[in-house]
Design a protein that fits this description.
Length: about 290
């Protein structure tokens, strides 16, 4: 990989130092795990980069409390698999499902903040986080603010962060009641980016009626991972039997705009999205306790 215009590579030792530097160098490209730099360079999106800022020495703490799991933005994917509240909770199961797909080299380097900041439609973790209603905590010169992931994703490889802003935390709100989630992915071969992926989170009451639902899809079904309100509307207020789950899977086509590329055609992605969403829902229902 060649960055012919690169003039400076900065490695701040703290979050405050990183924000100070970005306040004076707002066009700098932020590097977290760095696992997608080659992908960006191969697409011609780094030819004008003059300054890189490596923030790996900043926010990597994890705080588990009664209301949420708060994850520092530079926490690696491998670290997340060491947190029992993530790996053992049915309501959060979509996240460890997604974390097991990348190879160990990626898990040891890629960060949760970088995964969502990249706004790459082919990544797995953003789709799982969408289904879990994760929120990005952002800091910059104007202070701190919170963005839902639909608010953060701005387009293909583009986010809505202001110049000089950083994602400092990703917060996953806890879900009370009878809840479960799941993630599934179709890939060309092991460790490849997704052709289509899907995540689902459901909450039911004591009579088995669905009171909350999230169905998220990624992998080239749009320019970024998205929620399917059509599928969610099928689930809400219903008993989650086989017919309802099948109908919810079919409904995702109303919310996606698949792309064609070297992995799959738009038509194929549209067909597969229905199947993968349906199977993710089936897996989530099977985990309800």
């Amino acid at each position: 990989m060649a960055l012919h215009k690169l003039k400076d590579f900065h490695t701040p030792g703290s979050l405050d130092e990183a924000l100070d530097f970005l306040g004076q160098n707002s066009e700098a490209l932020v590097l977290a795990g760095g696992t997608f730099l080659h992908g960006l360079e191969a697409r011609g999106l780094m030819s004008d980069v003059e300054v890189l800022v490596d923030i790996r020495k900043t926010a990597s703490t994890v705080d588990v409390n009664d209301s949420a799991i708060e994850i520092g933005a530079t926490t690696t994917l491998a670290r997340l698999l060491e947190i029992p509240q993530i790996t053992e909770a049915p309501w959060a199961a979509a996240l460890p499902d997604a974390l097991f797909y990348p190879p160990v080299q990626i898990r040891n380097t890629a960060t949760i903040g970088g995964c969502i900041a990249a706004s790459c439609p082919f990544f797995d973790v953003p789709t799982a986080l969408l289904a879990l209603d994760a929120v990005a905590v952002v800091r910059g010169a104007g202070g701190e603010r919170k963005l839902s992931l639909p608010e953060l994703f701005g387009g293909l490889f583009a986010n809505t962060l202001e110049p000089g802003e950083l994602i400092t935390k990703v917060c996953i709100p806890r879900v009370s009641g009878k809840a479960a989630s799941a993630f599934l992915k179709l890939e060309t071969n092991a460790n490849d980016l997704a052709i289509v992926n899907a995540a689902a989170r459901i909450v039911v009451d004591n009579s088995g009626i669905c009171t909350e639902a999230r169905v998220a899809l990624g992998g080239g079904v749009a320019e970024f991972a998205l929620l399917s309100s059509s599928a969610e509307n099928v689930l809400l207020g219903s008993k989650l039997d086989a017919a309802i789950l099948r109908a919810a899977g079919q409904a995702v086509v109303d919310d996606i705009a698949p792309m064609s590329d070297h992995r799959a055609s738009a038509k194929y992605r549209s067909a597969v999205a229905q199947v993968i969403a349906h199977r993710a829902l089936e897996r989530a229902v099977a985990r309800l306790i």
